[in-house]
Every structure is written in structure tokens, then in C-alpha cells.
Amino acid sequence: MSGAGAVTVRVPAKVNVQLAVGGARPDGFHDLANVFLAVSLYDEVTATPADALTVTCEGPDADKVPLDRTNLAARAAELLAARHGIAPDVHLHIAKDIPVAGGMAGGSADGAGALLACDALWGLDTPRAELLEICAELGSDVPFSLVGGAALGVGRGERLTELPVGGTFHWVFAVADGGLSTPAVYGEFDRLNEGVEVPEPVASPALLDALRTGDTAALAGALANGLQAAALSLRPSLAATLAAGTAAGALAALVSGSGPTTAFLVKDAESAESVAAALIASGTCRTARVATSPAAGATVVG
Ligand code: C5P
């Protein structure tokens, strides 16, 4: 909870229900057709006045979160303060529930959360379009953390079009031991595709339809992650996790973003509980979490 003179923002994790990856661009990034869906696992970022910029973190994986200026929350405060010509004197506390380096945009969530929290704490009222620009500067997935819901991201994933979602989807996320570095997974993608003509990434009409109509079975048939082969190449043990969730009754299984979290689409809340229990019992993951989507984007909660 935040006290007087503090602002707390809640920000969701994401799963990529389609991640179509193009060839490497001259700037090293990859053009994407990236369909983001926000899920109900959240970090909370609390901003309080301080004499200098400091970051603290609590949660089971807190020891894996950098507390220096490489933390996207700290960078968000710096960029916002610089834009308004003020000092970024703020204490940012992250209550972390999103897996760290897991392919669920946990770091991006903290960046978007800090941005919104500082904007409110400092009374800046920065226009939404400017906040989104700062998000894009922070990282490819950060604009989506601000927006939430569902969206198609093109370019390097930062240019968003919000998408309608016609129902609730139920998920299980298997959390792996250790993280995977996003640049390393993209590097492996390039290595696996050396000498191959990689097609232009395009959003799947069947997938967009499944989201719009809230049709879980259709979404299960349309899920696709172009980084999955690269993530599995770097972490072959994820194949056993995917197989365990499928054997337990998941309608579809895929690596979440660049991994190593794996995502399982299930038919309802009851199935989510049984698939999560089976995944934990299988010994192929560190833990399993249930969640629903869509979830709201970054929101001031206190
Ligand atoms: O934008 P962000 O800082 O999250 O990207 C992290 C890394 O992921 C980039 O440095 C790049 O190696 C890779 N990436 C990419 N193409 C994208 C997004 C990210 O190659 N569209």
C-alpha cells in the first residue's frame, strides 16, 4: 500500500499470442507482427518523494532484479524528469510478481509503471502520446505494458493498434529455473535462419478473429511464436514442460515471447487449476501460475 505522498501503479504481464518475426534489420532489431495479450499477473510500482533516485524490490525473485540505472523503472523516471527539466528524485519500490527475465515483459511492466507513477507523483499530466513515446524509447514491449488489453505491435513491436477481445481466456504459465536473455534468443533466431529468406511478418486473420469473438478453441489453433525454435534450441528442456502441459489437458502450449516461461491455454478456470497442479507435479518447471486475459494496462491503484 502507498501512504500519503506516494503513488502506486499496477501493471500486467503479457503473453504473445502471435509473434511473427522478420529478418534482422540494419539496426539489429527485427520487424515484428506481435500480438500482445495482457494477463492477470501484476507488478506494482510505488513512487515516493526522495532526495535521489533509488530503486528497491520485493518478491520471490527480487534478488535477480537490478537496482541500478539499468532497471527500466529508474530509466523511466530519468527520461520523464529530463523531458520536463526536473530532477528524478524519487524512490521507486517494485513489488514483483511477474517472473524475472521470463518472456512476460516484467521489466517492461516496471518501466511503464514507474513512468505513470512518477507522472502522477510529480503532477506532470504528460499527454498519453508523449508517455507512449517515452515507453518506446525504454524498450519494444514497454508501450504495451502501459496500454494493456490486447494489441498488435508492428515495427520492432512498439507501434501499437489496440485490438478488441470478446471474452475471457484462461492460462497457465510454467515458470522455468533461470531466465533467458532476449538478445540471445533473437541471436539464435538469426543463427537458425542463416541463408533463409525470412518472410515479412503479418498478423494472422484467424488469430485476430479468435480474439475478437473470444473463441478459446480457435485461439488455441492459431497461437504461434516465431521465437519458439530459438528458445528451445537454447533451452531444450522446455520441450518436456510443453509436453507435460499438453498431456495434462491444455488446449495449446507455447513459449511465452523469448521464454523461458511456457504458456498453456486452457478451457476454463477449473482446467487451469488441474493443469497447473500437473505441471508442478511433473517436475519440469519451478512453479506454475494461473491467470486470465485480457487484463487492464498500467493503472494507478493508490
Ligand atoms: O527493445 P528491447 O530493449 O526490449 O529489446 C531487447 C533486445 O531484443 C534488442 O536489443 C534486440 O536484440 C532484441 N529485439 C529484436 N527485435 C525486436 C525487439 C527486440 O531483435 N523487435
From TrEMBL:
Enzyme Commission code: 2.7.1.148
Any GO BP: terpenoid biosynthetic process
Domain GHMP kinase C-terminal: start-end pairs: 208-281
Single GO term (MF): 4-(cytidine 5'-diphospho)-2-C-methyl-D-erythritol kinase activity
Keywords tagged on the record: ATP-binding, Isoprene biosynthesis, Kinase, Nucleotide-binding, Transferase
Enzyme class: transferase
Domain of life: Bacteria
Active-site annotation: K14, D141
Pfam families: GHMP_kinases_C, GHMP_kinases_N
Binding site for ATP: P99, V100, A101, G102, G103, M104, A105, G106, G107, S108, A109
Annotated ranges, domain GHMP kinase N-terminal: 71-149
Pathway: Isoprenoid biosynthesis; isopentenyl diphosphate biosynthesis via DXP pathway; isopentenyl diphosphate from 1-deoxy-D-xylulose 5-phosphate: step 3/6
Reactions catalysed according to its record: 4-CDP-2-C-methyl-D-erythritol + ATP = 4-CDP-2-C-methyl-D-erythritol 2-phosphate + ADP + H(+)
Protein family membership: Belongs to the GHMP kinase family. IspE subfamily.
Role according to the record: Catalyzes the phosphorylation of the position 2 hydroxy group of 4-diphosphocytidyl-2C-methyl-D-erythritol.
PANTHER family: 4-DIPHOSPHOCYTIDYL-2-C-METHYL-D-ERYTHRITOL KINASE, CHLOROPLASTIC
Protein name stated in the entry: 4-diphosphocytidyl-2-C-methyl-D-erythritol kinase
Organism for this UniProt entry: Streptomyces showdoensis
Gene: ispE
